[in-house]
Amino acid sequence: MVQPWERAEGAAGAAKLSAAAPGLRSGAGSGGAAVWVLLPAAVWLVGFQCLFYAQSFVDPDVYRSQLWLMLLDDVLGADDGVVATGVPTGWQFAVQRLPLAGVAGLLLLLSGVHGWAVDRWLLRSVPLGRFERWCVLLGVGLSVQSLVMLLAGLCGGIGGGVLLLAAGVSVCAGLAGVRRAGVERVAGAVAGVSSVRREGGRIECWLFWLVAVPWSVYLLWGALTPPTDFDVREYHLQGPKEWFQAGRISYLRHNVYTSFPFLSEMHSLAGMAVSGDWWRGALAGQLVLAVYQLLTCGLVVAAGVRWCGRGAGYLSGLIWLTTPWTLRISLIAYAEGALSFYTAAAVLLSLVLGRLRADGVRGRALLVVGFLAGSAMASKYTGLLLAVLPTAVGWCWWWCRAGGGVSGLLAAGELRRGFVREAVWYVAGVLLAVGPWLVKNAVETGNPVFPMAWSVFGGGEWNEPLNVRWKQAHGAPEHELERIPQHFLDAAVRNKWTSPLLFGLAVPVLLSCGRSVPLRLVWLAVGWGFLTWWGLTHRIDRFWVPMVPFLSVLSGACVQLGGAGWWRGLVLGSVVTGTVFNLRFSTLALVGFHAGLMDLEGARELVIRSDLQELNRQLPAGSRVLMVGEAEVFDARFAVLYNTVFDESVFEELTAGGDAGTGAGRALAAAADVRERLRAAGVTHVLVNWREVLRYRLPGSYGYAEYVQPERFEQLLSGGVLGEPRVLGEGSWSGLSESERRVVQQWPGWQQLVRGDVWETVRLYEVR
Predict the structure, then answer these.
(1) 639-641 and 624-628 as β-strands: parallel, antiparallel, unpaired?
(2) Residue 90 half-sphere exposure, CB side, CA atoms within 13 Å?
(3) Burial environment of residue 245 by CB neighbours within 10 A (0 to 12, 13 to 18, 19 or more)
(4) Biggest alpha carbon distance in the chain?
(5) What backbone torsions phi and psi does residue 427 show, to the nearest 5 degrees?
(6) Are 234 and 644 in contact (CB under 8 A)?
(7) Backbone angles phi, psi at 148, to 5 degrees
(8) Which of 74, 159, 319, 400 makes the best surface tag, with the fewest CB within 10 Å?
(9) How far is residue 651's CA from residue 685's CA, in Å, rounded to a whole number?
(10) Using CA atoms in the order 126, 131, 136, 140, what is the torsion angle rounded to 10 degrees?
(11) How far apart are CA 342 and CA 374, in angstroms?
(12) Which has the closest alpha carbon to 30: 571, 563, 572, 568?
């Protein structure tokens, strides 16, 4: 039976596919109909950009239009751009990055070996361009290497040797695949690639490479910057650090975030294992994570070329690469970089496979699609919604079209068997990628997706109060339909790190994407992403990042909307203007800390809080500090005992007496008992960060263990358990807002923290 996506085969089908890209331009000449299509598109494009540049950055409250004045100062030399940090800077410090780049290069090379082996067995017959193929395969290899690191860590074998051994196994598997005979080759036209699409676009090509080469270097160089973000120093890097120091991956009951799937964080752990140092290994891992942005760029270019032509493809890649979000997730070791790549790769590769016959070749390739989608979920749970479900539903839709509906599919035995075979391949790929993480959680906590779905699966030491706080903090604050336009503007216009080119160029493509099935599906992916972001998440702005590759493809396609010279000039002018704006904005500290040519050790000290710097320098060897209210501990060079805001308070466990009472009403244990518990836990000091406690207890925030109150420490002090406090941080009492002071004044014993106009934010106690 001929499938709907197979009807393009043969000479007529190839010609039809070859005309697909010009189809976006059909009728776009000087005819009246085309003018009425292009005029509203031009009005939208100009109006959107005016609205965008008229907005403020909010924090700081500076209008975007003022950035053009900064650019004018740059051109005229009126601004020297020097920011005093006290850290030496110069080319002589570039050599400090070379060992880190060497570690990252080795990890990428070993990952490439895994990808090459997968290609020999599963993807060799799939019509992909050479660059497109290696982007997919390196991404697959990185996911394989992450799984190798996970399994080695669970077995207590964290080290570089296991990575080399795994690469050796892949070399043997790849060589066996090379010898495999009878590999079927599929014509490139079947996948929608044609010579017509690769013609033209010379200006776009030169513009892309002119910007992409230096900007990629700047992006990768920035990845070797000491981490500054709270989440990164709380769990993205802190979890791998603890596992590296312990020599194995185990359940960290004090850090619930480390029970998430940690695909991207395994690259940091691999860097630590190869370099033998947790800090330098973390930087090498950040560099590996930054490579995901370049791989995504390659996919975006390939998709644009495949569906809309060479010029559109290069514009799409330029738009993705220069969007400030792309640099931001390279400077900060978030999981969104890997999530964006695997989501885009799964969706785009599934669209390519949709043009192939339903046979063994496509079935094996579906294993890779499932593995990519599962890798998105292994990067972050939201990958289930953004990658796994859309690709699965899309594939079911293809098969229903082939069988004339669900009933036809079920009635035709051959179709039904083919559908089941491909479903098995896809599900197997998903489980290969994310299954080990789910099994790890199930064994450790009894809940495969812990801490999610606790009301369904239960899980470990989690309880109803913690679950309620978690759901309140990670759910959407409201679902008022009339506020959807406001939320859209927040993401598309007002967000600090978005680009004027994304929605400005992507929305006009709606006028003609009805002639292109892939572009319709890409728009559907964007709409689904917005729906899940709005309805199922707490709407953090970076949760939008996985949609940026799709928006970039649509934005690049805008240049093909019409063939009129004035339209092409308007689009290219907007792209040049937006690119200049994005590049200048991305060099500001608003995007993230970029160490540039700073002395790496000096930059490391620069980003560490003053209280932790002092403890790093002065604490005696063998010290272990119990952190209260503080979980941003990655930079600590001493042993710590801490808990995140969503874990049970370790301080309460070590100092509370019996089970009588809860929260603030719970009694303190006897001094001798507390002293013995602290000694058994190896605690030599107790640090309290009252500023963090205040942040968590403000209205609308996460909440914090009510047991932790200033009077507890006064009681431990008077009981001889703790010594006199040493103040490591201070703030202005009058500088707090009225609501903040009101919250502090509700704490029993708050008066001991305030002296005149000074309130003591960080205190250190020595255990007697």
Answers:
(1) parallel
(2) 3
(3) exposed
(4) 91
(5) -60, -40
(6) yes
(7) -60, -45
(8) 74
(9) 12
(10) 110
(11) 8
(12) 563
The pLDDT of residue 646 is 94
**Chain centre distance of CA 300:** 17
Residue 155 burial (CB count, 10 A): 11
Please state, as a whole number, how many other Cβ atoms lie within 10 Å of the Cβ of residue 386: 28
State the CB neighbour count (10 A cutoff) for residue 550. Answer: 30
H or E segment and range at residue 766: strand 758-766
pLDDT at 4: 31
Residues 367, 423 contacting (CB under 8 angstroms) = no
Q: Which long-range contacts (CB under 8 A, 24 or more apart) does 42-46 make?
A: 42/567, 42/570, 44/504, 44/507, 44/508, 45/504, 45/505, 45/508, 45/558, 45/570, 45/571, 45/574, 46/570
In whole angstroms, give the CA distance from residue 146 to residue 249: 13
741-752: buried (b, 16+ CB within 10 Å) or exposed (e) per residue? bebbeebeebee
Q: Rounded to an integer, what distance in angstroms lies between the CA atom of residue 461 and that of residue 3?
A: 52
Pairing of strands 624-628, 685-689: parallel
Tokens of 267: 């690259």
**What is the Cα–Cα distance from 38 to 508, expressed in whole angstroms?**
8
DSSP 668: B
C-alpha–C-alpha distance, residues 198 and 360, integer Å:
30
Q: Are 687 and 761 in contact (CB under 8 A)?
A: no
CA distance 329 to 343: 16
Q: CA–CA separation, 290 vs 334, rounded Å?
A: 10
The conformation of residue 593, written as its DSSP 8-state character, comes to -
Which of 239, 702, 253, 250 is CA-nearest to residue 461? 253
The rounded Cα 755 to chain-centroid distance in angstroms is 43
Q: Rounded to 5 degrees, what are φ and ψ at 727?
A: -80, 120
Q: Which two tokens stand for residue 7?
A: 């009807």
The answer to whether the pTM exceeds 0.85 is yes
Roughly how many angstroms between the first and final C-alpha of the chain, as a whole number?
Answer: 82
Q: For the chain, give me the number of helices (H) and strands (E)?
A: 34, 6
Q: Which amino acid is at 348?
A: L
Q: What pLDDT score was predicted for residue 66?
A: 87
Three-class SS state of 764 = strand
Mean pLDDT by 10 residues, the chain (768 residues): 32 35 40 66 94 87 86 68 76 96 98 95 87 95 98 96 96 85 41 46 93 97 96 97 97 95 98 97 98 98 93 96 97 96 95 76 88 98 96 86 64 73 94 98 94 87 87 85 90 93 93 80 93 89 94 94 88 96 92 94 95 96 96 97 95 85 82 96 97 95 93 95 96 95 95 94 96
Q: What is the dihedral of CA 637, 234, 286, 167, to 10 degrees?
A: 90
Q: Write the CB contacts of 646 (distance below 8 Å, at least 6 apart in sequence).
A: 256, 451, 466, 469, 470, 473, 702
DSSP H or E stretch at residue 144: helix 130-154
CA 277 centroid distance within chain: 24
DSSP letter string, 159-171:
SHHHHHHHHHHHH
Q: Tell me the Ramachandran region of residue 720: left when phi exceeds 0, alpha when psi lies from -120 to 50, beta otherwise.
A: left
Residues in the chain: 768
Comparing C-alpha atoms, which of 675, 666, 673 is closest to residue 648?
666
Distance CA 387, CA 380 (A): 11
d(CA 105, CA 285): 10
Task: Tell me how crowded residue 207 is: count the other CB atoms within 10 A of its CB.
Answer: 19
Which amino acid appears at position 181 of this protein? A
DSSP-derived secondary structure for 393-454: HHHHHHHHHHHTSHHHHHH-HHHHHHHHHHHHHHHHHHHHHHHHHHHHHHHHHS-TTTTTTH
Any bridge partners for residue 640, and if so which?
625
Cα–Cα distance, 611 to 698 (Å, whole number): 23
**Which phi and psi angles does 613 have, rounded to 5°?**
-60, -45
